[in-house]
Structures are given as C-alpha cells and as structure tokens.
Design goal:
Chains A, B: This is LacI family DNA-binding transcriptional regulator. The structure is a homodimer. Chain A is built from 14 helices and twelve strands. The first copy, chain A, has helices at 7-14, 18-25, 33-45, 52-59, 75-90, 104-115, 128-133, 137-144, 168-181, 197-212, 235-247, 260-272, 290-294, 306-322; strands at residues 64-69, 94-99, 121-124, 149-152, 162-166, 187-192, 222-225, 254-257, 282-286, 300-303, 335-338, 341-343. In chain A, the strands form two sheets. A six-stranded parallel beta sheet of chain A has the order 2-1-3-4-5-11, sandwiched between helices. A six-stranded mixed beta sheet of chain A has the order 7-6-8-9-10-12, with helices on both faces. In chain A, α1 (7-14) crosses α2. Chains A and B meet through α4, α5, β2, α6 and α12 of A and α4, α5, β2, α6 and α12 of B. The structure holds a DNA duplex.
DNA sequence: TTGTAGGCGTTATCAC
DNA sequence: GTGATAACGCCTACAA
C-alpha cells in the first residue's frame, strides 16, 4: 500500500527543494527545462496530485458546494441535485449533500457541520419544520459569516439571498385555465396547508384562474391536506379525504392537485367511484416525476424543470463565489423564476 | 461580514497563546479554571468552531465519505444515499457525491477528483460502461493508495473489496416460484443483457426456479433488452419489443421482469392486447420504487431494501476506516448479502 | 500553568 | 535557477 505521494517526497527523491518541485510542476519559467522535465516525469510516474485539503487550507477556498435538501428520495430534489452537480463539476466544484429530513434541528446541525470550512457556499431548500417555526437565524448567521446561500423552490421573502423558484402561481393558473378551456365547470383543488410557500402560491394560481373566468371559488371544492412533517403521506387517509371531497360534491368534473401523489390519488378515487378519466373528470398534477408519466391514464402535469433549477442555482452560487473580489460591494440579490410547462397527457382532453 | 473566528484571533484578543486557547477549549487539565472559563466564554460568544479543513490536514482524515453512483434520479440509488447519509452523519461523517452518469470516464474523473485528499473512502456502484469495458484499474489504484472502497449492487468479483449486494438470485427465484405456485405455466422473462451483473443473476434465478419445478426454459419466452448506456429507455421501443414477445407466444400467463419499468410496460402491453391482470397474466417486477406501489394494478415486486444497503455499506466503510490501526493486517473482505422480500400486490393472485 | 515549535501539504515571496 | 521561509488553522510534545 503506497500512500499518496507529496511534494516533499518527490523533492527528497530527486534531491531538490520542495519549492523547486512545486514550481517545476506548475511549469514556472524560473526553473530550467532540465529540472522541469525530470520533476514532471517523476511526478507522472508516481501519479502525483496536489492534495485538495492542503490547497483548501492555503487558498481558504474548498471548491465545494454544500447542498441541503429536505429529502433525497424524491424526484424533484434528486433532479435538482443532478443539475447542481452537472454545473458544479463543469466549473471545478464538488458537491456535498446534507439531508434535513424536513427537520429544523437536522437542518441546523447539517449546516453547522458543513459551514466550518468544508464548503464555500450553500444551495438549499427549506425544510417544512423550519417553514412552520419561521426560525431562520441559521441562514442569516451563515450569510453574515460571509458564506453565500442560494435557495431554491422553498424560499421565504424574509431572507435576503439569491433564489431560484418555480413560477408556481402561473404554473397553477395555466393548469386551471386549461381545465376551464376544456369545459370543466366545477374544478376541485387538492392542496397543502398554507405554510408551505409553494402550496400557497399554487392555491393562489387556482383562485386567480377561476377569477379571470368569472367563476366563483367554492370552499367545499378545496381540500387542504395536512402533510406537516410527515412527508410519507398516509395513502389511506389521503384517499379517504379525497373520497369525501368527491362525495360531498358530485358535480366535480376537474381536479387540480398541487403534486403528483394527490393527483394520482384523485384519479384512483374517481375511478373507484365509477368516474371515467378524462371523460367525467379531468385531472392535472404538479411536478415532473415518474409517476405522472407511467400512470394509467398518464397524468397531465405542470413540469417544473427541476434540473434546470439546480443548474441555475449552481451558476448563481459559483458566480457569487468567484466575484467575491468586490466583496460586499453591491449587495444585490437575484430571484430567478423558472417558467413551467404544461405537459399534456391522457388525464385531460 | 464577520469572517469565521480562529484560535489565533481568540488568542490575540485574550492575550494568551494559541495553544493555551486550544487546550482550554478541549478542557485540558493543564489549564487553570480561570483561563478556561474566560476562553470558553469568549469562544461561545463568538461561536467558535474548529476549521474542518485544518483538522483534516492535520489528522490526515477528512471524515468524509465519497459516494459514486451512476445516476441520482433513481429511487434505488437515492434510497441508498439516504441510508449512507443516515449512518455517516450518526458516526460523524459527511457525504460527498459524484455522478458517473453511467460513463466510464466520468467515473474515473470523479473518483480522481475526490481521491486527492477530499475523502477517506468510497462507496460506489459501478457504471454500465465500466462493466462493459471491464476496465477496473481506477478501483485498484485507489485501493492501493490506501483508500478503502465498498461496492454495492453492481459489483464484480475481480475486485477485492467489501461489497454489499442484493440477493438477486434468490429474489428472482422466489418471485418466479411464486408465479409457478400461482399456476402459471408459461412464464416470460424480461431482462437486460448479461454484462449487467444483476441482470445476469436475476436471469439465473428465473432459470433455477423453472428447473426446480421441472419446467423447461424456452428461449422465445426470454426477452433481453439492450439498455446499454442509455439509462433513459426508449419507451416505445421497449413496448414494441414486449408486444412482439406476447404476440409470438400467446400462452404467456406470467411475467417476471428484472426491473420496475419493464414490468409496468409488460402490464401496459398486456392490457392493450386485451389481457386481464392478474387473471390472464400475472406480473412481478424487481425493485422497491414508487411506480410499483402506485401503478394500476399495483405491482407485486421484489424489494431490495435499498436504504438498508446504504446503511450497511456505510457501516462497513467506516468500520474499516476506524480500524486502520491494524493497517493491512487482516486483508479480509466481506460480502454482505441483503435478503429480498416479495411484496405482494394486485398484479399477482 | 502557560508558551514555543514543529508539522500536516501547498504556494508565494524573497534571498541567494 | 534554486532554495529557504512563512503562512493557511489546528494540535501536541516538550520546554519554560
């Protein structure tokens, strides 16, 4: 077992100084061709690579991005990671992940762990618990120590940092408009409680779409699911709530659900009640997961371009990292809004 | 913007030496209560945290695990990551990810990047291209530099390292046995080309199950899909191949597919051909993804316990890292086999 | 009880 | 053209 070779070892072997070796390897003009050749050959032979950790210490720059997400077993988040990773690698950065598991304390601990020198900046999406508690001190502290943060998807306006968000409002609005255009008269909304910002915005989109078409929102057409900390939704419970919705409102001919699972459950319940999709009820979901694509009937859905969000977030962060020259010069933060697309499949006409 | 505080700064502020501060913070008996109090209070006030990078350099230990997977937008792999992360964090490690994207060169580059001091060891699953090329030099080189590797799921016997694998053979065997017990007489297999080790083993399980029940495998019941480097399978192509299978073999009453997507496609094609599931054809898939659970009918499948694999892999790796005391003493490697479970749902009787 | 010095691996500056 | 030295932040053996 040969340990990784260092400059010091090369220097000893070739009987030159460490700094000569260092310079030779960086092809410095100061060093004679002869020495350079010798050193470079030797380095190649032993497959020398500078130690990242030493470089990080010296440069006070790790070239590593920390990404904190609530959950990784989730298409949206894993696609975002893929986007981040893609851009990061292209620009010479590594990605280190932390999972908050939707928990406030895990989010804090994880950020703490990484903030102590392991990374140069964060890309993150806020956990549900944090959103509920509205305790954002860890974000502000991190930033006040000069570590930039880019938030995506689940963000809050209180925090001043770069953000990448989905155009939830218009995504939802367009989806509901589509249902209206398709002659739906009684459109149900299946959404989450309001503290999840995206749920709130999608709900708003639903309301605005109705309004624009002079339709009056009816409270009994709106179902708000409480999936608080419990990201593993209880399917039975969910379906029974949806069943209540359908039963207490027999005229429902359209459903807009703020995520894939709610939409699928709605389809399942509808079928169970003898309704045909899309002839009796048309359904649209939100998110670009696998379920939508492979369900029967396949689900019309609002695509969020998750990977693109990740790419954009990574670019924003790295731009900021590499422009630290002008330090706290222009403290201007951007919010990039990613447009959605409606992907039409079999669940709508 | 206040930069992170260091020992040096604390020392200067309190007018003591750096080592005094260091010792005081570690509650050394050498230091007077007085000084300790003073230092600790100051450190707390300024929220001092030792710099990870400096520690890594000093200890030649990063407390970071590198994980290289072919693809992150994939339930199996993201569950594995979740398992790794869980154990790693509990044991004081961070996780850094690299995506090979099923490409040999990206696998090599990513490992290279991380191996230069960024991490203490690897957990990885081999990319398809690497498996095809059978070029494993990068694994061996990494290990010969004293960096341990734990492989999971996609492994090769040529490489000597710890491994965590699914009991693919018996998983498949039990699935096919189930079909046989359920009176299927003509069981089709939808699998991948043989260079993917797991595909090969699952195929073998299928054959052994038939054999044990004195059923003769028929070549025209076996469909081998070529999903080479193209992890985004062409659905149309896939379905048309499966349709051929069904058409050229009208007696098929059972299907065992080596993954979720093949199974779902088989169900879709069967339905299209007017066959009822599970009455005319029973279907079993492999993997514990979301598709199986939410498809209609829901899919009976072989669960691999991906998260558990991740946990096990992390434990193996960290055990090895923390037992480096006896260095290359006992060069014994373990292969942990994770048993599968058959999750019965609606696609079988 | 406190401080000094050396080293982890690298690079930059400056002296020879 | 080459090498010694300092520094990044931390820890620790040893000296005072």
């Amino acid at each position: 077992m040969k340990r990784k070779i260092t400059l010091k070892q090369i220097a000893r072997e070739l009987d030159v100084s460490i700094s000569t070796v260092s310079k030779a390897l960086r092809n410095s003009a100061e060093i004679s061709e002869d020495t350079k050749q010798k050193v470079q050959a030797f380095a190649k032979l032993y497959n020398y690579r500078p130690n990242n950790i030493a470089l990080s210490l010296k440069n006070r720059k790790t070239n590593t991005i920390g990404i904190i997400i609530p959950e990784i077993v989730h298409h949206f988040f894993s696609k975002v990671i893929r986007g981040v990773e893609l851009v990061a690698n292209n620009r010479g950065y590594n990605v280190i992940i932390g999972l908050s598991n939707e928990s406030f304390s895990k989010e804090v601990i994880n950020m703490d762990m990484l903030a102590n020198g392991s990374i140069d900046g964060f890309i993150l999406s806020i956990s549900k618990e944090t959103l509920q508690l509205q305790d954002y001190h860890h974000f502000n502290e991190t930033m006040s120590q000069g570590m930039p943060i880019v938030m995506f998807d689940r963000v809050v306006s209180d925090i001043k940092c770069d953000k990448v968000i989905v155009d939830d409002l218009n995504g939802a609005k367009n989806a509901v408009k589509k249902l209206i255009e398709n002659k739906c008269k009684s459109i149900a909304l299946i959404t989450t409680k309001d503290y999840v910002s995206v749920g709130k915005l999608r709900t708003q989109g639903y309301l605005e779409a109705l309004e624009e078409h002079k339709m009056t929102p009816k409270a009994d057409l709106i179902l708000k699911i409480d999936d608080t900390l419990d990201y593993k939704v209880d399917l039975e419970e969910l379906e029974s709530e949806i069943e209540q919705l359908f039963k207490s409102n027999k005229k429902i001919d359209g459903v807009f659900a703020v995520n894939e699972l709610y939409a699928l459950s709605a389809m399942k319940v509808a079928r169970k009640l003898g309704l045909d999709i899309p002839n009796d009820v048309q359904v649209i979901g939100f998110t670009d997961g696998v379920l939508s694509k492979h369900s029967t009937p396949s689900l019309t859905t609002v695509s969020q371009h998750a990977q693109h969000m990740g790419e954009k977030a990574a670019d924003l962060l790295i731009d900021k990292l590499e422009n630290e020259i002008n330090e706290d010069a222009d403290e201007e933060y951007q919010t990039v809004i990613i447009a959605t697309d409606l992907i039409e499949r079999e669940s709508t006409k």
